[in-house]
Amino acid sequence: MAYFLTFLLTSLFVGNGLSRLNDLNTVESYMNICMLGKQHKSSPGPEKGLTSKICSPWAARSCCTEDTALDIHTNPTWLNFDWNHCGPLSAQCREHFIMDSCFYSCSPNVGPWLVKDVRKIRKERFKGVPLCKPVCDNWYEACKDDLTCTDEWAQNFNWSSGINKCPQGSTCKKFSEVFKHSSVKFCEKVFGSFKVVPESKDGTENCFHLWFDSKFPNPNEAVARRRAAEILNVEYVQIEGAKLKDPNNAISLGPAWGLSLLLSFLQTVLFKSS
Predict the structure, then answer these.
(1) What's the rounded Cα separation, in Å, for the pair 269 and 49?
(2) Is 3 helix (H, G, I), strand (E, B) or coil?
(3) Are the CB atoms for 208 and 223 separated by under 8 Å?
(4) Does the keyword Signal apply (predicted)?
(5) Given the DSSP bridges, would you call strands 129-132 and 194-197 parallel, antiparallel or unpaired?
(6) How does pLDDT run across 221-263, given as a tens digit for each residue?
(7) What pLDDT digit, counting tens, does each position of 191-209 carry?
(8) Quick one: which of 4, 27, 157, 201 could link to 228 by a disulfide (CB 3.0–4.6 Å)?
């Protein structure tokens, strides 16, 4: 029984990842979705345990749990990724990669940029998220004198040992040398997730921040709403400082919603029978 349920649950999990993005048909549906991954919640919601020291920008509305956020900050090989593959990262560089990891796990605003990406740890990823150039420049400046052995961390490492190792024949060099002294090449290539864009001159939010003061509204939300409206070819409606309704009380967003309920039920039955 447990074997059958495991098989069924796995099949539904994969199928859900392959179809649910096609079911996003309103701006709100894009705003109430988390990446489909083992470290992500099914939908965004408050996480009061996120403090000034752990992924604090997303305390009010997060796609990660407190445990995941704590793991990001304390585990040197989070998701089996060795940040120190060419020797220890400097504290300032590590801090920026922690910010990026918090964004990856916790941000509730990447719905319009989600694409299929079937791996052990996830079924989706975000690609082409517009990253503000000053944010990118600061990240690069923090890491340019640190060492790495490849420019594409999502693709080029050797994972045969279960932890990322430098590709055969590669050598450790400064980030500045590996990424050709370009902050843009670094931010766009290291994980293949971002598209660096200049900030708008009129003050309109047009790009994402990896980190922000949680005392103020999330600046990334307006950017995500605008992009969702563009995808759906509907009028963009700006909501100043608005908080979305608790997705647990939301109306069904389509077939994927019912499938999520079935997945939750099967998980409960499976865990009780094991």
Answers:
(1) 29
(2) helix
(3) yes
(4) yes
(5) parallel
(6) 999 999 999 999 998 777 654 433 333 322 222 333 333 333 3
(7) 999 999 999 988 888 999 9
(8) 27
